[in-house]
Amino acid sequence: MASSKDWFETVAEARRRARKRLPRSVYLALVAGSEQGITLEDNERSFSELGFRPHIADLPQVREQATTVMDQDISFPVIISPTGVQAVDPEGEVAVARAAAAAGTAMGLSSFASKPIEDVVAANPKTFFQTYWLGTRDRILEHAERAKRAGAKGLIVTLDWSFATRRDWGSPPIPERLDLKAMVRFAPEGIVRPRYLLDWLRYGRLPDLTTPNLARPGEQVPTFFGAYREWMQTPLPTWGDIKWLREQWGGPFAIKGITHPDDARRAVDAGATAISVSNHGGNNLDGTPASIRALPAVVAAVGDQIEILLDGGIRRGSDVVKALALGARAVMIGRAYLWGMAAGGEKGVANVLQILRSGVDEALLGLGRPSTHELRPGDLIIPPDFTRASW
Predict the structure, then answer these.
(1) What is the DSSP annotation of 51-80?
(2) Are 132 and 161 in contact (CB under 8 A)?
(3) φ, ψ for residue 292 (rounded to 5)?
(4) Which of 82, 135, 215, 229 has its CA 20 to 30 A from that of 358?
(5) C-alpha angle 337-106-205 in degrees, rounded to nearest 5
(6) Tens digit of pLDDT for each residue in 168-192?
């Protein structure tokens, strides 16, 4: 199907449309990376270094993509990665959840999300709730228990963040809240993006940049930066803390942010169900190798003991297949679906998921594999120095 007003053929096209629709600051927030953006760029570039070994005859007529992640059956190996407060579209995470549910896959919801966990689970019962180590143990447990009452099927604890706020190439200014002063400041950006403004006006309000999933009964809902400040002031967790939370939660439990095999082993020791090989989309320690480069060593260390996901740089179905061939069970996507939502709301998210599903199918056909579960490193051409690993 050729690109049209209501359809785009690639994630790159979704990104171009997002740039045209979003105010400059909002768009820049979606593409930001730490410091020089070395890791951010490597997350994407690394996939192009991996080649395929295709076949041309006796190819499978039907290809199977279904798998299971944290006890949830999904129709293809792509799930939604949790991302923070979304000023991309008025329906935010609820629209993403509906698109993911329609595609038969799971939704990761950030504790810093713009929509309540209850609304997101109603839109997609296969929802995992993500939390940072924020506040006291009692406070963290309150958030987790609220998510469990709402019906969240698993808990994701994100540890890949070092509080770096520096962007050598210029980070967009983000206000604490959209008060009159902020609206005057950002008005020039909004005026040149009338479609974006009109969508919010139809919705009945402007982005409020609050975090409803961190709200406590009887208290004001914290703003994104209010929650962020509390997070930065919280003592850093130990592996003992993570094991405690795993025991308190009692259900499927994932740790996001693993790049080192030693941390992968500690995650297994803590009783985690799954780990996500991730560098926070290039927003953690700059100079960290791309997630896909770190994947083989993690798989070698714990691949037979725990579910392994990959998060970072996925832009095509062929990227998904490369990650699976190197040992991932599924991948998580962040920027790709946000660009889709910016380009077309819920339909745009569905569009991105369909692009990835079709790309996975095409790669399976070319490789002669009837199922994603049969992918192996031998399906790839891997340069000798690809992992660039020192461990």
Answers:
(1) EE----SS--SS-B--EEETTEEESSSEEE
(2) yes
(3) -65, -25
(4) 82
(5) 55
(6) 555 666 666 666 566 667 667 777 8
pLDDT in tens, 121-137: 999 999 999 999 999 99
| 323 in Cβ contact with 278 (< 8 Å) | no
DSSP secondary structure letters along 295-344: HHHHHHHHTTTSEEEEES---SHHHHHHHHHTT-SEEEESHHHHHHHHHH
Element at 127 (helix H, strand E): strand 127-131
Model pLDDT, residue 229: 82
Kindly list the distances between the CA atom of residue 303 and the CA atoms of 23, 171, 192, 272, 327, in Å, as whole numbers in the listed order. Answer: 42, 37, 50, 13, 7
H-only helix segments in the chain = 11-21, 24-31, 38-48, 92-103, 117-123, 137-150, 180-191, 194-203, 224-233, 239-249, 261-269, 291-302, 317-325, 335-367
CA–CA dist 282, 206 (Å, integer): 29
β-pairing, 330-333 vs 307-311, is: parallel
Structure tokens at 70: 């944290």
Q: What is the pLDDT of residue 123?
A: 98
Instruction: Enter the pTM of the model.
Output: 0.94
Residue where the block lists tokens 């406590």: 216
Intra-chain end-to-end CA distance of the chain, in Å: 45
Q: Which pair of structure tokens corresponds to residue 117?
A: 């966990």
Q: What is the pLDDT of residue 390?
A: 46
Tell me the catalytic residues: 280
8 A C-beta contact, residue 353 and residue 341? no
Structure tokens at 67: 């798998």
